[in-house]
Design brief:
By secondary structure, this protein is α/β, with parallel strands linked by helices. It has 13 helices and 18 strands. The strands form four sheets. Strands 1, 2, 3, 4, 5, 16, 17 and 18 form an eight-stranded mixed beta sheet that branches. It has a four-stranded parallel beta sheet with strand order 6-7-8-9. It has a four-stranded parallel beta sheet with strand order 10-13-14-15.
């Protein structure tokens, strides 16, 4: 049932606005914005001390659906997204079976329509993620694919990658590239360096990421096409993207909160929840990631939300790589980059909402009259501690367990409907209960 919502006295922030006002939502749209609105509404919220911003978009998540739903599924993944203020996602195609079929992709997107989250799906660059035969990009585009990727596996050769970029450009689909040289990795499980030596485990040499990042940049230049580099984690990758952008290459990239907040020292605990690919790196790499965010080399912040069941993460040396992140991404970014004075709230909207949508050819979400009511309310000063068991994700493998953050989404609204409310929100709970 359509119910109007009036948010009073909230600080409204997008990339073009930062002001305190009232926001009236009606029929899925922002109907009015201004001071002391006199309009009646079914639900009246007290936004005092809260920030309204457009819903976040995470362009790198794994919902494990279909085929691996013991880790996560469409419903629990979307619940985690909404709890983190994320109203749109791009799911990676390394499902079981992989998303190389137009029929499979269409079926998944049909199921996603009722979640309250704008779920986009990437199709496979190569059939079965095998790196041998390119998928049918026009068919995937027609089925609703928003991008193409072999995430989790690199395209094995420069020749195949260059052809993929050409074909993707012709189909009008962005390419999201997982940069890793498997021959260099050769069974490594954490960053190669002092910590891997101390633990006596095989390390993942940074040359793996750096070399394929440069290779794919070169392929994009030769193909006169664009490429988006996934989850950069090294100074070398940041430098390569920075130089390529300066030279006019159509390259963009992303990083995740764990790469600008944590380092490889976390692995000393031999806890597999701190294992992901690419791995946590050194302090110098962490600083390079922050520098890349601040100077615009890194275009957006994502999570690479990758759930794994507790029993799968039990043995340090044998556990699969991946961490969950949808429910902590904004909080980690606010804590590490906003409250330290490095970024403004408008910067965060750009990095976590506007740019990801632009890279995928999606219309931006704004706080303006007539815009879709797709927004979140954030208490930027709320201090809270991450308790894995309280996460909405089906899996709890978070690197931020036990950490205290400052800032948290407390309400998420999509299509004019309240989808998530945190108990700490400063709202009239008796009105919310009838929503």
């Amino acid at each position: 049932m359509d119910r109007s919502i009036l948010i009073r006295g909230v600080r409204a922030v997008d990339t073009k606005r930062d002001e305190c006002c009232d926001i009236l939502i009606q029929s899925g749209k922002i109907e009015q914005m201004g001071e002391n609105l006199s309009a009646d509404a079914d639900i009246v919220l007290d936004g005092t001390g809260l920030v309204a911003m457009p819903g976040l978009f995470d362009m790198h998540v794994h919902f494990r659906d279909p085929g691996q739903t013991h880790k996560e599924d469409l419903q629990t993944g979307c619940a985690a997204a909404l709890a983190g203020g994320v109203t749109g996602v791009l799911c990676m195609p390394n499902t079981t079976p992989p998303m190389d079929s137009a029929a499979q992709l269409s079926e998944f997107l049909a199921r996603a329509k009722e979640t309250g989250v704008e779920v986009c799906q990437a199709g496979c660059l190569t059939m079965g993620l095998q790196g041998k035969e390119l998928a049918d990009y026009p068919a995937l585009k027609t089925a609703g694919a928003a991008a193409l990727s072999d995430d989790g596996k690199p395209v094995p050769t420069a020749e195949l990658m260059e052809q993929a970029l050409r074909n993707a450009a012709a189909a009008g689909l962005p390419v999201v590239s997982h940069c890793e040289d498997l021959a260099i990795i050769d069974g490594g499980i954490i960053n190669k360096g002092i910590i891997s030596e101390q633990l006596g485990v095989k390390g993942m040499d940074r040359r793996s990421e750096d070399s394929i990042t440069q290779r794919d940049i070169d392929c994009a230049a030769k193909a006169n096409a664009s490429v988006h580099i996934c989850h950069v984690s090294t100074r070398g990758s940041v430098d390569a993207v920075r130089k390529a952008k300066a030279a006019g290459v159509q390259v963009t990239c992303e990083t995740a909160p764990h790469y600008f907040t944590l380092t490889e020292e976390k692995l000393l605990s031999r806890d597999a929840d701190y294992r992901m690919n690419p791995p946590l790196r050194t302090e110098d790499d962490k600083q390079a990631i922050i520098e890349g965010i601040l100077d615009g080399t890194i275009d957006c912040i994502i999570t690479d939300h990758a759930p794994h069941a507790a029993n799968e993460k039990a043995v340090f040396e044998k556990a699969p790589n991946g961490v969950v992140g949808l429910e902590t991404s904004l909080a980690a970014t606010l804590t590490a980059l906003y409250h330290t004075g490095l970024l403004t709230l408008q910067d965060i909207v750009r990095l976590m909402s506007e740019t990801p949508r632009r890279l995928l050819g999606l219309a931006p979400r704004t706080l303006s009259v007539g815009a879709d009511a797709d927004l979140i309310l954030v208490n930027t000063n709320l201090e809270w501690t991450v308790v894995p068991e309280q996460l909405h994700s089906k899996s709890h493998n978070t690197v931020f367990k036990g950490m205290t953050f400052k800032g948290k989404p407390v309400m998420t609204i999509t299509n004019g409907i309240i989808r998530y409310t945190d108990a700490s929100a400063k709202i009239h709970k008796e009105e919310i209960s009838n929503a």
